[in-house]
Amino acid sequence: MTLQINDLSVSYGSRKVISHFTLSAIPEGSLVAVIGPNAVGKSTLLKSLAGLLKYSGNISLHQRVMRDLPHREVIKHVGYLPQTLPQPTTLVAYELVYSACRAVCGNQTNVQLEASIERVFRLLGIHDLALRRLSEMSGGQRQMVGLAQVLVRHPSLLLLDEPTSALDLHWQLNVLEAIREETHKTKAIALIASHDLNLALRFCDQLIMLGPGGVLAMGEPMSVLTPEHLRTAYGIEGRVERCSRGYPIVLADSACI
Amino acid sequence: MDMTNAAVNDPIRNASESIAMDYRRFVTKRILLLATLLIIALCSLLVDLATGPALLSLWDVCVGLWNPDGVSATTQVIIWDVRLPYALMALVVGACLGLGGAEMQTVLNNPLASPFTLGIGSAATLGASLAIVFDLSWIGLSFTYLLPLTAFLSALAVSLLILLVTRSMGATVHTVVLFGIALMFGLNAVVGLLQFVADSGALQQIVFWTMGSLARANMEKVTIVGVVFFVCFLWSLTQVWAMTSLRAGEEQARSSGINVERVRLIVLFRVSLLTAVALAFVGEIGFIGLIGPHIARMMLGEDHRFFLPGSALAGAILLSLSSIASKALIPGVILPVGIVTAIVGIPLFISLIMTRGREYSS
């Protein structure tokens, strides 16, 4: 199973946000970070993959053209986590995840659904929050619940828009570890839009770097995060070095003048 | 023995039973709360039946309901023909407004929304005022049925207008709310104009209508409202999952594959129907559709499987209690119930906001 994107263009009204993106095929079981400065179309890319925006060009998953798939099929295969957190309401976490599943994937039996909610809540380490109201949770906790809502459906394409934006360091590592485990185990594909280059470098198999002119680079993290690319995309002087444990880390030295 | 050991030793399995089990216990508690609300509603109905100028005890009422021949003919008439339609009307109208308000608050994602937000209440008033001022009785219908009919048609027409406009503009929350508010002011202005040109008799009737009253109830009308409520309630149950997940936010719901605009349009249509039918027979009764859902939310949370019936019950109880108050506040006088709901409703609403202010501000 692969994800292929060919000649993808998306506009908001007359403003073209993505124009003629073509990416090399993304193989199953891979975790891919979509990085780049603000307003280059990271979220737009994920949204159009999720089928929430009109686009021209071709997206295919499993050799099947997404545009031709019925809504029900798309929902079954694609899990999209929006950038906005679930709003604080009197709903408890379990109800939210349960009802979102019941509303769309009616083919799961109750037992299956309960088991899969159970598994995901434990995978993310939020089983203690299951019966707590969203209004009594912190932003980070709500973000985890939102992620659980997506993972419960076992999508083969995960589209996560800044899934760690509200999380502390512990949970950032925890969540990415969980997503990586899930992706590798179920042979899914995960696309993660992120601003955290170090996390991307640490966890992802591939990076897609978007710049003002479109796709700037794609491939192995180390080959994408070069000083030249950092300069073009972010307008910074930066470098990648190895820390004392051998992990590569991105260092931003200064903003270009 | 082996099996129990296996369950204890296998942490995943053991724990896997715990969340689902905990949740089931949680659900049971809510079912009990719902049952409590139902009992309160029934008690309120009995007290409502026992309240009025002819002094009847609760015992008389119970006997009269259970075995009509066991009480005097007068008591029988008072209970069955005078008070029962009135008391039942309070329950069904309250339930309609409570259910409509709850659904409206969910699809507009706004705790201040109610069936009146979209001007449906004003539309019903306009319809009734038109019939009064232009004296449409030549159609051959008595005012008893003419007013509800014109009120209903006008409310439905306005609802359809809102639906058409919002659908063509994408059914976002802002479109619906802004258009609804604009429409409400517009309709109120037209009602004002009608009042200005009306003669004093017609004016009095319009004013009486806007106060809302259960006094025009009879069993036939109760049945009509009851049937509409029942149908709408069952219909709303088909969308409980979508509405529940909508509470986490529009984007969240959409990302789980829910067609938010479609849900919103269907719900708006249903709320219009509920409101139009309920208000057509009783005139303007505010606040029930606003406060009922708040009470239900505090007691039952927002899983719509419990929130919707809870809200309908809370609305029914509120209007039933208001009906009792409307008879008991000034002995011998039945106040228009719309005035009572407003007088009792405003302080209640403010205290709800005060206690829950923190939640809204976050």
Summarize the structure in words.
The complex is a heterodimer of chains A (257) and B (362). By secondary structure, chain A is of the alpha/beta class. Chain A has one domain (2-255): P-loop containing nucleotide triphosphate hydrolases (Rossmann fold, 3-Layer(aba) Sandwich). Chain A contains nine helices and twelve strands. Chain A has helices at 42-49, 71-77, 93-104, 110-124, 139-151, 169-186, 197-203, 221-224, 227-234, and strands at residues 2-12, 15-27, 31-35, 56-61, 64-65, 78-81, 157-161, 189-193, 206-211, 214-219, 236-242, 248-255. A six-stranded mixed β-sheet of chain A has the order 6-7-8-3-9-10, sandwiched between helices. In chain A, strand 9 and strand 10 form a beta hairpin. The radius of gyration of chain A is 18 Å and the shape is globular. The mean pLDDT of chain A is 90. Chain B is mainly alpha-helical and 362 residues long. Chain B has a single domain (84-361), classed as Orthogonal Bundle (ABC transporter involved in vitamin B12 uptake, BtuC). Chain B is 79% helix and 0% strand. Chain B contains 15 helices and no strands. Chain B has helices at residues 2-9, 11-50, 58-66, 73-107, 120-133, 143-168, 173-197, 200-211, 219-237, 240-246, 250-255, 260-282, 288-300, 304-328, 337-361. The radius of gyration of chain B is 23 Å and the shape is globular. The interface between A and B is large, with 45 and 35 residues.
